[in-house]
């Protein structure tokens, strides 16, 4: 009894100590529904309003045949869903297939000379590059041959550290052809952040590039790759080979020269393997396709492992029936391939359907905020896929789509909640009221969309994501696991009642973390083999309206979503603590007009250190160098002490209030020194 009570108090304190995005979320009222334009109602793959019924609960899990049958299988599966070891579900058991074959080879007959990838460089005077499915097939084979010659084989891991160039999907697909597990690290991450992911994945080979263009600047990326390899070596992990692509075929453009014996230019290797064909390796459906690292609530990123069969079926299925990508579409997703959105909705999903994807190297605001519409006009883009942060920025910079002649059918938004006024601009100015805005909610862990409406038959709801995606049954639980009924207006934990094929297989080398992070809290019976007892916990807060449309409020845990990028608060705090003199660090989400949230960092100093702008700057740079520019705190405030509870926990909730200019601190009686709150307020907002 006593132990239980103590635990409860501990929990309370823990709750006080952390602050979630959902708690600082801006609430907007009930917003209207908008019917899809008539043209889309006619053209969409799904025009039958009863289509959703195929995926109703009674048909689960067999309903996912519809997705899996979009793929070519070397051996058909015998069991759709194996739940014998919850929550490590296995989909399409007994089946064998190859992801590269499905995304490339099988399209040659029908679409061989159709564009698979249109690559648009950031410098506007540089010509585009088009790869047909034949080109892709040819190049993927040569790269696969190179990988094979290095002794890499199915089940090995390789880390890719590459920007938005066609060589990235080529390399990913070459890995997939051989069953090699790729782990692509976002090129905007720092060298040390990349090192951490190389070590965790135990990759012996790193594939990178000399440099690339971003926002008008040449980024010398090989330098970052060197840092990654060196940091890994310092921590006892040897990267044996580094393969380097060149942004320009005829020159190597990095200050960091290739290191004899370790570094190899892809250009030279490709020459040796020119014209080679490599048979694809049929892989078990439940084998890993790739690892994608994401931030969690501890300092260490989690490696989400995605499967070949379930994942590919899920992304192909959502791309066809929800995203509504047709072979004649030009699909442009602005996300970086280094994030899950790029893996699922630039590379694997669209290519599995034989679509044409446009890949743009740079930022949408370069050289001016009309660039996206010039690209759309010039290449006939029909589907645009981006994040609210990009839309907000373009809108703010005075981007004017009306000057350009293009026509979108589908406008996807993903990554953060989209405010009604931003939604309206996306729909009216960007979409010219001819396109459907599709707000898609999901996560790195989930492989593909969890909530989205069917664009041809269901209305959009401004500022809300849709109902559960096909075959997905979301539910909202309160703190104690009781269901909050739709239409009640109350927020709670959004969970998914059932398994689905896109969910990660596990966390790389840490399966326990999957149970703890996503299932433990609301698991009804840990002994049970019935999936109904194992709801998936997304970690977001949401409300659900009467019609079953969900509105996501933000994370409920120690994660901050900055401009659609997910950052762990502990990662940022640990980076700050590496600076000499820093005693304590606490980071909180501050609402930001452009980025959704930005991290505000509070630090206190050890005895003998005086607050100075230099220390604040050092802390900023430390976070930037250890994680990457996206994590850079908006502000670093040096405070005399943290608002702390008697048990010594920092009350981040109070700091979040201060950052967001709010004085509704709530109960401050548990603080050791309540007067500190006023002092910190003055530091942040000035006196008065
Ligand atoms: C978190 C997942 C998977 C796509 C990119 C981000 C937030 C995602 C939405 C949306 C409101 C959203 C959630 C989620 N999020 N989509 N449509 N509306 N919030 O992937 O880095 O794994 O982050 O992004 O908070 O948990 P991620």
TrEMBL record:
Q: EC no.? A: 6.2.1.1
Q: MF terms per GO, please?
A: acetate-CoA ligase activity; AMP binding; ATP binding
Q: Which Pfam families match?
A: ACAS_N (PF16177), AMP-binding (PF00501), AMP-binding_C (PF13193)
Query: One of this protein's GO BP terms?
Result: acetyl-CoA biosynthetic process from acetate
InterPro entries, per database record: Ac_CoA_lig (IPR011904), ACAS_N (IPR032387), AMP-bd_C (IPR025110), AMP-bd_C_sf (IPR045851), AMP-binding_CS (IPR020845), AMP-dep_synth/lig_dom (IPR000873), ANL_N_sf (IPR042099)
* UniProt entry tagged with the keyword Ligase: yes
Q: Which residues form the AMP-dependent synthetase/ligase domain?
A: 105-500
Q: AMP-binding enzyme C-terminal domain: which residues?
A: 571-649
Can you tell me where the transmembrane regions are? none
Keywords attached to this Swiss-Prot or TrEMBL record, sorted alphabetically, are:
Acetylation, ATP-binding, Ligase, Nucleotide-binding
At the top level, the lineage of the source is: Bacteria
Q: Which residues form the Acetyl-coenzyme A synthetase N-terminal domain?
A: 64-103
The family assignment reads: Belongs to the ATP-dependent AMP-binding enzyme family.
- NCBIfam families found in the cross-reference section: Ac_CoA_lig_AcsA, PRK00174.1
Q: What is this protein called?
A: Acetate--CoA ligase
């Amino acid at each position: 009894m006593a132990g239980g009570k103590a635990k409860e108090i501990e929990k309370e304190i823990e709750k006080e100590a952390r602050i979630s995005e959902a708690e600082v979320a801006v609430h907007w009222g009930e917003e209207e529904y908008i019917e899809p334009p008539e043209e889309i109602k006619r053209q969409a793959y799904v025009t039958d309003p009863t289509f959703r019924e195929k995926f109703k609960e009674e048909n689960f899990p067999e309903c996912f045949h519809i997705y899996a049958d979009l793929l070519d299988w070397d051996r058909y599966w015998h069991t759709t869903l194996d739940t014998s070891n919850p929550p490590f579900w296995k989909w399409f058991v007994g089946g064998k297939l190859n992801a590269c074959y499905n995304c490339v080879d099988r399209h040659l007959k029908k679409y061989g000379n159709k564009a698979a990838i249109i690559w648009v460089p950031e410098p506007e005077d540089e010509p585009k590059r088009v790869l047909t499915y034949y080109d892709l097939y040819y190049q993927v084979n040569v790269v696969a041959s190179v990988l094979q010659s290095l002794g890499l084989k199915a089940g090995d891991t390789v880390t890719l550290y590459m920007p938005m160039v066609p060589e990235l999907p080529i390399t990913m697909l070459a890995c997939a052809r051989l069953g090699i597990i790729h782990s692509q690290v976002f090129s905007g991450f720092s060298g040390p952040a990349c090192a951490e992911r190389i070590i965790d994945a135990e990759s012996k080979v790193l594939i990178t590039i000399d440099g690339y263009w971003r926002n008008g600047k040449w980024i010398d990326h090989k330098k970052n790759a060197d840092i990654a390899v060196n940091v890994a070596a310092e921590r006892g992990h040897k990267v044996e080979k580094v393969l380097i692509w060149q942004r320009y075929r005829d020159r190597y453009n990095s200050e960091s020269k290739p290191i004899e014996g370790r570094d190899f230019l892809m250009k030279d290797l490709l020459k040796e393997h020119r014209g080679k064909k490599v048979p694809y390796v049929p892989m078990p459906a439940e084998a890993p396709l790739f690892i994608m690292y994401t931030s969690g609530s501890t300092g260490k990123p989690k490696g989400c492992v995605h499967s070949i069969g379930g994942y590919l079926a899920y992304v192909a299925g959502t791309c066809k029936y929800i995203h509504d990508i047709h072979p004649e579409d030009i699909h442009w997703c602005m996300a970086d391939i280094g994030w899950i959105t790029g893996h699922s909705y630039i590379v694997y999903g669209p290519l599995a359907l034989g679509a044409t994807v446009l890949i743009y190297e740079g930022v949408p605001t370069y050289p001016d905020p009309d660039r996206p519409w010039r690209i759309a006009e010039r290449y006939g883009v029909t589907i645009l896929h981006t994040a609210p942060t990009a839309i907000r920025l373009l809108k703010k910079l005075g981007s004017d789509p009306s000057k350009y002649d293009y026509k979108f059918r589908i406008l996807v938004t993903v990554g953060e909640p989209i405010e009604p006024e931003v939604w309206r601009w996306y729909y009216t100015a960007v979409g010219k009221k001819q396109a459907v805005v599709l707000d898609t909610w999901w996560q790195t862990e989930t492989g593909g969309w969890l909530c989205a409406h069917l664009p041809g038959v269901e209305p959009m709801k401004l500022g809300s994501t849709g109902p559960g995606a096909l075959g997905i049954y979301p539910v909202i639980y309160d703190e104690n696991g009781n269901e909050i009924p739709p239409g009640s207006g109350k927020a709670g934990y959004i969970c998914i009642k059932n398994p689905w094929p896109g969910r990660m297989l596990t966390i790389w080398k840490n399966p326990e973390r999957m149970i703890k992070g996503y299932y433990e809290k609301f698991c009804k019976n840990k002994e049970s083999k019935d999936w109904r007892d194992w709801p998936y916990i997304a970690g977001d807060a949401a409300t659900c309206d009467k019609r079953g449309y969900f509105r996501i409020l933000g994370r409920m845990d120690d994660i901050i979503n900055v401009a659609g990028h997910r950052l762990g608060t502990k990662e940022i705090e640990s980076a700050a603590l590496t600076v000499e003199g820093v005693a304590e660090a606490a980071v909180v989400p501050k609402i930001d007009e452009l980025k959704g949230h930005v991290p505000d960092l509070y630090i206190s100093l050890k005895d003998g250190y005086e607050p100075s702008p230099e220390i604040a700057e050092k802390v900023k740079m430390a976070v930037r160098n250890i994680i990457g520019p996206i994590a850079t705190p908006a502000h670093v405030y040096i405070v005399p002490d943290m608002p702390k509870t008697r048990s010594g926990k920092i009350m981040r909730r109070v700091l979040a209030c201060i950052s967001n200019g709010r004085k509704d601190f709530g109960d401050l009686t548990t603080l050791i020194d309540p007067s500190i709150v006023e002092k910190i307020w003055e530091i942040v907002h000035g006196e008065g």
